[in-house]
Amino acid sequence: MNVFVVALAGGAAGIGLLMIAAGLRGRPVVSLGALRDGRFGRFTDRVLLRTALALACGAVGLWMTHWAVLGIVGCTVGWLSPTWQALRGAHGRELALVEAIATWTEQVRDAMSAANGLEQALAATVELAPDAIAAAVSRLALRSEVESLPDALRRFAEELDHALSDFVVAALLTADAHEARELGALLGLLADTARDEVRMRIRVWVARARTRTATRMIGTVVVVMVVGLLVFDRPYLEPYDAPGGQVVLGVVMSLFAASYVAMQRIGRIELPQRFIARRDDLGEAR
What we know:
The chain contains 11 helices and no strands. By secondary structure, it is mostly helical. The protein folds into 2 domains: 2-88 and 209-266, no CATH class; 93-205. α3 (68-112) packs antiparallel against α8, α5 (134-146) runs antiparallel to α6 and α7 (163-178) runs antiparallel to α8 (183-207). The chain starts with a helix and ends with a helix. Residues 31-37 and 278-286 have low confidence and may be disordered.
Protein backbone atom coordinates (compact mmCIF):
# COMPACT_ATOMS: atom_id res chain seq x y z
CA MET A 1 0.00 0.00 0.00
CA ASN A 2 2.82 2.43 0.86
CA VAL A 3 4.47 1.84 -2.52
CA PHE A 4 1.18 2.56 -4.25
CA VAL A 5 0.74 5.78 -2.29
CA VAL A 6 4.25 6.91 -3.15
CA ALA A 7 3.66 6.15 -6.83
CA LEU A 8 0.42 8.11 -6.88
CA ALA A 9 1.99 11.03 -5.04
CA GLY A 10 4.97 11.07 -7.40
CA GLY A 11 2.75 11.00 -10.48
CA ALA A 12 0.53 13.78 -9.12
CA ALA A 13 3.54 15.89 -8.17
CA GLY A 14 5.12 15.46 -11.60
CA ILE A 15 1.98 16.41 -13.49
CA GLY A 16 1.39 19.30 -11.09
CA LEU A 17 4.87 20.70 -11.70
CA LEU A 18 4.32 20.35 -15.45
CA MET A 19 1.10 22.33 -15.25
CA ILE A 20 2.63 25.01 -13.02
CA ALA A 21 5.53 25.46 -15.46
CA ALA A 22 3.13 25.70 -18.40
CA GLY A 23 0.99 28.23 -16.53
CA LEU A 24 3.95 30.44 -15.70
CA ARG A 25 4.95 30.48 -19.36
CA GLY A 26 1.37 31.17 -20.45
CA ARG A 27 1.29 28.16 -22.75
CA PRO A 28 -0.86 25.03 -23.05
CA VAL A 29 0.17 22.02 -21.01
CA VAL A 30 1.11 20.07 -24.15
CA SER A 31 2.22 21.28 -27.57
CA LEU A 32 0.20 19.64 -30.31
CA GLY A 33 1.22 21.78 -33.26
CA ALA A 34 -1.64 22.30 -35.66
CA LEU A 35 -4.00 20.37 -33.40
CA ARG A 36 -3.43 22.71 -30.45
CA ASP A 37 -6.34 24.97 -31.37
CA GLY A 38 -8.66 22.09 -32.20
CA ARG A 39 -10.89 19.97 -30.04
CA PHE A 40 -8.21 17.33 -29.49
CA GLY A 41 -5.85 19.86 -27.92
CA ARG A 42 -8.50 21.17 -25.53
CA PHE A 43 -9.56 17.61 -24.71
CA THR A 44 -5.95 16.64 -23.89
CA ASP A 45 -5.53 19.64 -21.57
CA ARG A 46 -8.74 18.77 -19.74
CA VAL A 47 -7.69 15.14 -19.35
CA LEU A 48 -4.30 16.14 -17.92
CA LEU A 49 -5.95 18.50 -15.45
CA ARG A 50 -8.46 15.87 -14.34
CA THR A 51 -5.74 13.22 -14.09
CA ALA A 52 -3.56 15.44 -11.90
CA LEU A 53 -6.46 16.25 -9.58
CA ALA A 54 -7.55 12.60 -9.42
CA LEU A 55 -4.05 11.36 -8.57
CA ALA A 56 -3.55 14.07 -5.95
CA CYS A 57 -6.88 13.47 -4.20
CA GLY A 58 -6.50 9.70 -4.39
CA ALA A 59 -3.00 9.88 -2.92
CA VAL A 60 -4.21 12.07 -0.04
CA GLY A 61 -7.08 9.67 0.69
CA LEU A 62 -4.79 6.63 0.71
CA TRP A 63 -2.11 8.38 2.76
CA MET A 64 -4.54 9.48 5.45
CA THR A 65 -6.60 6.28 5.76
CA HIS A 66 -4.78 3.42 3.95
CA TRP A 67 -8.24 2.45 2.69
CA ALA A 68 -8.57 1.50 -0.96
CA VAL A 69 -12.20 2.66 -1.01
CA LEU A 70 -11.31 6.22 0.03
CA GLY A 71 -8.47 6.21 -2.48
CA ILE A 72 -10.99 5.43 -5.21
CA VAL A 73 -13.37 8.05 -3.82
CA GLY A 74 -10.56 10.62 -3.82
CA CYS A 75 -9.70 9.84 -7.43
CA THR A 76 -13.36 10.18 -8.40
CA VAL A 77 -13.75 13.49 -6.58
CA GLY A 78 -10.60 14.87 -8.19
CA TRP A 79 -11.68 13.76 -11.66
CA LEU A 80 -15.16 15.28 -11.33
CA SER A 81 -14.18 18.50 -9.53
CA PRO A 82 -13.79 20.55 -12.78
CA THR A 83 -17.30 19.48 -13.78
CA TRP A 84 -18.72 20.56 -10.42
CA GLN A 85 -16.90 23.88 -10.67
CA ALA A 86 -18.41 24.44 -14.12
CA LEU A 87 -21.90 23.56 -12.88
CA ARG A 88 -21.65 26.16 -10.11
CA GLY A 89 -21.57 28.96 -12.69
CA ALA A 90 -24.00 27.36 -15.13
CA HIS A 91 -27.03 28.92 -13.46
CA GLY A 92 -25.67 32.46 -13.74
CA ARG A 93 -24.63 31.94 -17.36
CA GLU A 94 -28.06 30.58 -18.23
CA LEU A 95 -29.81 33.58 -16.67
CA ALA A 96 -27.45 35.99 -18.44
CA LEU A 97 -28.09 34.29 -21.79
CA VAL A 98 -31.89 34.36 -21.46
CA GLU A 99 -31.83 37.99 -20.30
CA ALA A 100 -29.57 38.89 -23.23
CA ILE A 101 -31.89 37.19 -25.72
CA ALA A 102 -34.83 39.14 -24.28
CA THR A 103 -32.97 42.45 -24.51
CA TRP A 104 -31.76 41.80 -28.05
CA THR A 105 -35.27 40.79 -29.14
CA GLU A 106 -36.59 44.12 -27.90
CA GLN A 107 -33.76 45.90 -29.72
CA VAL A 108 -34.70 44.19 -32.99
CA ARG A 109 -38.34 45.10 -32.44
CA ASP A 110 -37.48 48.76 -31.86
CA ALA A 111 -35.05 48.88 -34.79
CA MET A 112 -37.67 47.48 -37.16
CA SER A 113 -39.69 50.70 -36.92
CA ALA A 114 -36.80 52.85 -38.23
CA ALA A 115 -34.86 50.39 -40.40
CA ASN A 116 -35.34 49.62 -44.07
CA GLY A 117 -35.70 45.87 -43.93
CA LEU A 118 -34.83 43.12 -41.51
CA GLU A 119 -31.12 42.99 -42.46
CA GLN A 120 -30.68 46.66 -41.61
CA ALA A 121 -32.52 46.19 -38.30
CA LEU A 122 -30.22 43.33 -37.35
CA ALA A 123 -27.15 45.36 -38.25
CA ALA A 124 -28.41 48.24 -36.10
CA THR A 125 -28.36 46.04 -32.98
CA VAL A 126 -24.68 45.07 -33.25
CA GLU A 127 -23.31 47.97 -31.19
CA LEU A 128 -25.99 47.72 -28.49
CA ALA A 129 -26.24 43.93 -28.18
CA PRO A 130 -25.80 42.53 -24.62
CA ASP A 131 -22.36 41.21 -23.79
CA ALA A 132 -23.55 37.60 -23.49
CA ILE A 133 -24.48 37.43 -27.20
CA ALA A 134 -22.60 40.42 -28.64
CA ALA A 135 -20.13 38.26 -30.58
CA ALA A 136 -22.90 36.08 -32.02
CA VAL A 137 -24.93 39.15 -33.09
CA SER A 138 -21.87 40.64 -34.77
CA ARG A 139 -21.27 37.42 -36.71
CA LEU A 140 -24.96 37.34 -37.67
CA ALA A 141 -24.71 40.81 -39.19
CA LEU A 142 -21.56 39.87 -41.11
CA ARG A 143 -23.01 36.61 -42.41
CA SER A 144 -26.20 38.33 -43.57
CA GLU A 145 -24.06 40.35 -45.97
CA VAL A 146 -22.38 37.38 -47.64
CA GLU A 147 -25.05 34.67 -47.49
CA SER A 148 -28.81 34.37 -47.37
CA LEU A 149 -30.52 35.73 -44.28
CA PRO A 150 -32.26 32.43 -43.41
CA ASP A 151 -28.93 30.58 -43.34
CA ALA A 152 -27.33 33.35 -41.27
CA LEU A 153 -30.21 33.23 -38.78
CA ARG A 154 -29.97 29.45 -38.49
CA ARG A 155 -26.25 29.69 -37.77
CA PHE A 156 -27.04 32.34 -35.18
CA ALA A 157 -29.52 30.00 -33.47
CA GLU A 158 -26.91 27.24 -33.43
CA GLU A 159 -24.38 29.51 -31.75
CA LEU A 160 -26.78 30.53 -29.00
CA ASP A 161 -27.96 26.90 -28.62
CA HIS A 162 -31.05 27.77 -26.61
CA ALA A 163 -34.70 26.91 -27.15
CA LEU A 164 -35.80 30.52 -26.61
CA SER A 165 -33.48 31.79 -29.34
CA ASP A 166 -35.09 29.27 -31.69
CA PHE A 167 -38.47 30.94 -31.18
CA VAL A 168 -36.99 34.36 -31.92
CA VAL A 169 -35.20 33.09 -35.03
CA ALA A 170 -38.36 31.30 -36.19
CA ALA A 171 -40.27 34.58 -35.94
CA LEU A 172 -37.57 36.38 -37.94
CA LEU A 173 -37.49 33.62 -40.56
CA THR A 174 -41.25 33.82 -40.93
CA ALA A 175 -41.11 37.60 -41.26
CA ASP A 176 -38.39 37.34 -43.90
CA ALA A 177 -40.31 34.77 -45.93
CA HIS A 178 -43.86 36.11 -45.61
CA GLU A 179 -43.43 39.74 -44.54
CA ALA A 180 -45.36 39.33 -41.31
CA ARG A 181 -47.06 42.54 -40.26
CA GLU A 182 -47.29 41.80 -36.54
CA LEU A 183 -43.61 41.00 -36.08
CA GLY A 184 -43.09 43.79 -33.54
CA ALA A 185 -45.88 42.55 -31.30
CA LEU A 186 -44.61 38.97 -31.58
CA LEU A 187 -41.05 39.95 -30.68
CA GLY A 188 -42.32 41.93 -27.71
CA LEU A 189 -44.27 38.88 -26.53
CA LEU A 190 -41.20 36.68 -26.88
CA ALA A 191 -39.12 39.18 -24.88
CA ASP A 192 -41.73 39.20 -22.10
CA THR A 193 -41.70 35.37 -22.12
CA ALA A 194 -37.92 35.37 -21.73
CA ARG A 195 -38.06 37.74 -18.77
CA ASP A 196 -40.79 35.61 -17.16
CA GLU A 197 -38.48 32.60 -17.54
CA VAL A 198 -35.66 34.50 -15.84
CA ARG A 199 -37.91 35.38 -12.90
CA MET A 200 -39.13 31.78 -12.67
CA ARG A 201 -35.55 30.43 -12.59
CA ILE A 202 -34.57 32.91 -9.88
CA ARG A 203 -37.54 31.86 -7.73
CA VAL A 204 -36.68 28.18 -8.15
CA TRP A 205 -33.00 28.82 -7.37
CA VAL A 206 -33.82 30.75 -4.20
CA ALA A 207 -36.32 28.11 -3.07
CA ARG A 208 -33.68 25.39 -3.39
CA ALA A 209 -30.97 27.39 -1.61
CA ARG A 210 -31.99 25.92 1.76
CA THR A 211 -31.55 22.37 0.43
CA ARG A 212 -28.15 23.19 -1.06
CA THR A 213 -27.00 24.72 2.22
CA ALA A 214 -28.14 21.67 4.18
CA THR A 215 -26.29 19.39 1.78
CA ARG A 216 -23.05 21.34 2.18
CA MET A 217 -23.40 21.31 5.97
CA ILE A 218 -23.97 17.55 6.07
CA GLY A 219 -20.99 16.90 3.80
CA THR A 220 -18.75 19.19 5.84
CA VAL A 221 -19.77 17.58 9.15
CA VAL A 222 -19.10 14.07 7.78
CA VAL A 223 -15.66 15.03 6.45
CA VAL A 224 -14.66 16.83 9.66
CA MET A 225 -15.85 13.91 11.78
CA VAL A 226 -13.90 11.34 9.75
CA VAL A 227 -10.73 13.45 9.75
CA GLY A 228 -11.08 14.03 13.50
CA LEU A 229 -11.42 10.30 14.16
CA LEU A 230 -8.41 9.56 11.97
CA VAL A 231 -6.29 12.07 13.87
CA PHE A 232 -7.47 11.62 17.46
CA ASP A 233 -9.07 8.16 17.67
CA ARG A 234 -7.68 5.92 14.96
CA PRO A 235 -8.46 2.63 16.85
CA TYR A 236 -12.19 3.48 16.60
CA LEU A 237 -11.96 3.04 12.81
CA GLU A 238 -9.92 -0.18 12.83
CA PRO A 239 -12.92 -2.36 11.79
CA TYR A 240 -12.83 -0.63 8.40
CA ASP A 241 -9.31 -1.96 7.79
CA ALA A 242 -10.70 -5.46 7.24
CA PRO A 243 -12.09 -6.48 3.81
CA GLY A 244 -15.61 -6.61 5.23
CA GLY A 245 -15.24 -3.09 6.58
CA GLN A 246 -14.10 -1.89 3.15
CA VAL A 247 -17.21 -3.43 1.61
CA VAL A 248 -19.45 -1.66 4.13
CA LEU A 249 -17.59 1.61 3.55
CA GLY A 250 -18.00 1.19 -0.20
CA VAL A 251 -21.76 0.72 0.21
CA VAL A 252 -22.01 3.86 2.37
CA MET A 253 -20.02 5.92 -0.13
CA SER A 254 -22.15 4.59 -2.97
CA LEU A 255 -25.31 5.70 -1.16
CA PHE A 256 -23.82 9.17 -0.62
CA ALA A 257 -22.93 9.40 -4.31
CA ALA A 258 -26.36 8.18 -5.43
CA SER A 259 -28.13 10.71 -3.20
CA TYR A 260 -25.96 13.54 -4.52
CA VAL A 261 -26.63 12.60 -8.15
CA ALA A 262 -30.37 12.34 -7.41
CA MET A 263 -30.40 15.82 -5.87
CA GLN A 264 -28.57 17.24 -8.88
CA ARG A 265 -31.10 15.71 -11.27
CA ILE A 266 -34.06 16.91 -9.24
CA GLY A 267 -32.73 20.46 -9.37
CA ARG A 268 -32.16 20.40 -13.12
CA ILE A 269 -34.56 22.36 -15.32
CA GLU A 270 -35.36 20.56 -18.54
CA LEU A 271 -35.38 22.85 -21.57
CA PRO A 272 -37.67 22.32 -24.57
CA GLN A 273 -36.15 20.52 -27.51
CA ARG A 274 -34.55 22.80 -30.09
CA PHE A 275 -36.13 22.84 -33.53
CA ILE A 276 -34.04 25.28 -35.63
CA ALA A 277 -31.38 23.77 -37.88
CA ARG A 278 -29.51 24.85 -40.97
CA ARG A 279 -30.72 23.58 -44.30
CA ASP A 280 -27.65 21.39 -44.78
CA ASP A 281 -28.28 19.79 -41.39
CA LEU A 282 -31.87 19.13 -42.36
CA GLY A 283 -30.70 17.56 -45.57
CA GLU A 284 -28.32 15.25 -43.70
CA ALA A 285 -31.09 14.28 -41.28
CA ARG A 286 -33.26 13.22 -44.18
